[in-house]
Amino acid sequence: MTCETVTASGLGYTVLQTGSGDSPGPEDMVTVNYTGRLAKDGTQFDAGKGSNFPVAGVIAAFGEGLQLMKSGATYRLCIPAALGYGDQDKGSIPPNSDLVFEVDLTSMVKKVPPPVVIIPETDRLCEMTTVSGIGYKEVKKGLGNSPANEDVALVNYTVYRPDTGLVLDGTDWMQIPLNQASAPIAEALKMMNIGSSFRFCIPGAMLGQPPKEDGSAPPPVNFHIDLVDVKKMSELR
H helices of the chain, where? Predict the structure, then answer.
């Protein structure tokens, strides 16, 4: 059970049957049939039929081999111990074992990139500035309590670039303990009350971002935050 070709990393492979179409990337999902054996004596230690997993969810050498394949292909992968489990004892895989897999890549699904979302320019501006330098605008008034240091804020938030409006991150129903939040985020949340929505324009330096290459201040980061609820720490234990 040997392999004909060796990659720069040391992974060996032999093409037993070619496939067609695209090769999977590290974040893509694949469906495979496979058999794993010990190289020294051919003992089978694992097998799967119709197994489905992300390429990045397996050991790096196996993932590298998958990225060489196309749908419908069958490869033999020869994985040296150093690229497999090394000196770990994996039960059916003794320490320092070279491994051989025969893999059928039956199908793959490309990861769909998230849609590009742009915040309109009129919705990026902050009207007021705190003493510390945080810009803010109250978008929607609330009627409930404001969070304190010992509280946990339940929020929906969106992070975006103030210059282009490109959304960078966001989630709903996130719990933020104020005593664990960064200083500018804690300050921002304390300005809000339950049911309110605020826009915050926070200098990058306050968020710990490094200066630009020319030494100038890092760009600011904008947040849209809805304060959904406030809980005491003890209520969540």
Answer: 60-68, 183-190
71 and 144 in a single domain? The answer is no
pLDDT in tens, 178-211: 999 999 999 999 999 999 999 999 999 999 999 9
According to the model, what pLDDT value does residue 237 have?
61
**Strand-pair category, 44-54 with 151-160:** unpaired
Tokens of 15: 């093409």
Interatomic CA distance for residues 186 and 70, integer angstroms:
49
Dmax (CA) for the chain in angstroms is 73
31-49 as b/e: b if 16+ CB within 10 A: bbebbbbbbeeeeeeeeee
Low-confidence ranges of the chain (pLDDT < 70): 236-237
State whether 84 and 144 are in the same domain.
no
Percentage of the residues of the chain whose pLDDT score is greater than 90? 88
Residues 131 and 212 in one domain: yes
- Domain of 64 in residue numbering reads as 5-109
The distance from CA 32 to its chain's CA centroid, rounded to whole angstroms, is: 24
